[in-house]
Amino acid sequence: MRLTILGGGGFRVPLVYRALLADRGEGRIDRVVLHDVDPARLAAIRRVLAEQADGVADAPAVTATTDLDEALAGADFVFSAIRVGGLAGRAADERVALAEGVLGQETVGAGGIAYGLRTVPVAVDVARRVARLAPDAWVVNFTNPAGLVTEAMSRVLGDRVIGICDSPVGLGRRVARVLGADPARAWIDYAGLNHLGWLRGLRVGGRDLLPDLLADEEALGSFEEGRLFGAAWLRSLGAIPNEYLHYYYANRETVRAYREAERTRGAYLRDQQAGFYTAAARPEVRALDAWRRTLAEREATYMAANREAAGDAGGRAPEDLEPGGYERVALDLMRAVARDERATLILNVRNRSALPGLDADAVVEVACLVDANGAHPVAVAPLPYHALGLVAAVKAVEREVLAAAESGSREAAVKAFALHPLVDSVAVARRLLDAYRAEHPGLAYLG
Fold first, then answer.
1. Over the stretch 115-172, which tens digit does the pLDDT of each residue have?
2. 418-431 as b/e, with b when 16 or more CB fall inside 10 Å?
3. Displacement of CA 405 from its chain's centroid (Å)
4. How far apart are CA 29 and CA 333, in angstroms?
5. pTM > 0.85: yes or no
6. Cα dist. 411→37, 128, 447 in Å?
7. Which one-letter DSSP state was computed for residue 354?
8. Contact 162, 140 (CB under 8 A)
């Protein structure tokens, strides 16, 4: 079977290939096509993958191309992991927002809107090409903002595009570990949007173990989300929020920490990965070792500003440094579809009627049953009003982004910024759009 990875020169591609190397059995991926617009990045990642495959029998063959149509034609699965504007674009998104005193994170707030406005037109073009060149392919979307981009692509591909994220997987794994449960045997009640969801229960043998965790002060302080949000707030919510909700629940503190930081997260990753790609291009350097060192640094510094804002200065625990989750979810998803090996996964899919309060076409992040016919969202209990209100507000923002991307309407783009819960002024929304248009030539379509 053939897997095409768009954004094939991206830093996380070796995580996916590592998972493929460990996969065995009928219907496994035996060909990987990497596509990227940057030949130098492609060459660096190909070196890493070749060193990963050294000594592995029947390693999937890897080819690379800068021709998008060539990459897509004949694919069985397509991973979309593109970054429109690169990490320089992410750094600019953060800088512009912080200059206005609002959050500029990659997927949340003004930064997420700017990223979505320049990514959606490209993602829709990819979807149309897939429909033409590989109509039987399944598209697995890694591209952020994952829920928004998946919804944009679903308007072309329907249910043949599925969005994935490692945040719910990591949260479920951490909560299960604290409770002494096997994550593979637990039913995780999780619902919301991408980067805007809540773990509301963890059931083993029909019993919900989450109340035990919420009643245990010491246990709540033993994992990342407990330290990030604080035991009192988690008990008040009666749930464990996705880590990205810290941007909402502690917005002032986080914005202050980001403004006081030496560099934003995007600027840090831009500089760090530039160093990796430069090193990986040198013949005397073992590219895989350079990649592993860079990955370890990346994981250790993840959400460092948020932890600082929360008063958690101790750094990440060793058990929380396990990278990824994307690749595991992606591999389980492909197995379920290609081999009809049924699985239960938390995915970004069209709602149908799973999450009350949102329409059928809204892409939501919920548990899904996956088989050869794709991902089927499982009906969940309604969100409490505070959560539903936040979800509905952010979904309204996403819809304005989609409208702006489709029509080129400046008015819709301003409305997207102004309606976001973390942007507190229509005047600020207008200035944000003007500043982003000045930074990103790709936003020139917004009149």
1. 999 999 999 999 999 999 999 999 999 999 999 999 999 999 999 999 999 999 999 9
2. bbbebbeeeebbeb
3. 20
4. 13
5. yes
6. 31, 26, 9
7. S
8. yes
